[in-house]
Design brief:
By secondary structure, the protein is an alpha+beta fold. The chain has helices at 2-9, 47-57, 76-81, 90-100, 150-158; strands at 15-21, 32-38, 58-69, 103-112, 120-127, 165-170, 173-175, 178-180, 184-190. The protein starts with a helix and ends with a strand.
Length: 191
């Protein structure tokens, strides 16, 4: 596996890669401090179920971070990039988090593309349970104003000194020269 090889070549001993469904992650319940969906939720067939699964695998006090596209009308994204959803409004993400039971949900636009189709990147966060989390994902001072390094900035802003972080990224496969949606997602798990 490419990711495991790269991690080993760079001396990362606390990182493992797991392939699994975004709606049923291959991670034990109550075992992670942070779940990060980085440009993945708009590829989920049932995004609410993915958020529910994130809640399930988080420890009490754990945080969810959803970095995704804000609602848009660029229909070509479905064929070109295998998007299932054309982004999400802040209201939709807030409602998803509240429905599952996350407290203190926050949603904000963190980047805007200057060129067509002028995508906006939105960040939604929430906390599971009553315990304080050791990380601060709402510190937006680390974000690039153009969003090119947004997920790297999130990593710098949220990773606790000790903890268990799971991040999900979408991966696609090609059939006949065009990307096709897959329910399989790459999960990075780090201690």
């Amino acid at each position: 596996e490419y990711g495991a090889r790269i991690a080993k070549e760079n001396g990362f001993t606390n990182l493992e890669y797991r392939l699994g469904d975004i709606e049923e992650p291959p991670i034990e319940a109550g075992s992670v401090d942070v779940v990060l969906f980085s440009q993945a939720l708009h590829h989920a067939a049932r995004p609410q179920r993915a958020v529910e699964s994130a809640f399930r695998i988080l420890k009490p006090g754990g945080r969810i971070l959803i970095l995704d596209l804000a609602s848009h009308t660029y229909e070509q994204a479905k064929e070109l990039h295998a998007h299932v959803w054309l982004g999400f409004s802040g209201v939709e993400l807030h409602a998803m988090l509240e429905k599952v039971g996350f407290r203190d949900p926050e949603v904000s636009v963190v980047a805007r593309e200057q060129q067509a189709p002028n995508f906006q990147t939105i960040l939604a966060t929430g906390i599971k349970g009553d315990t304080k989390s050791p990380c601060n994902p709402t510190d937006k001072s680390a974000f690039s104003p153009y969003g090119t390094h947004a997920s790297q900035a999130i990593g710098r802003a949220l990773v606790p000194e000790s903890g268990f972080v799971a991040s999900c990224h979408w991966s696609f496969y090609f059939r006949g020269g065009y990307p096709r949606a897959s329910s399989r997602h790459g999960w990075h798990v780090a201690r």
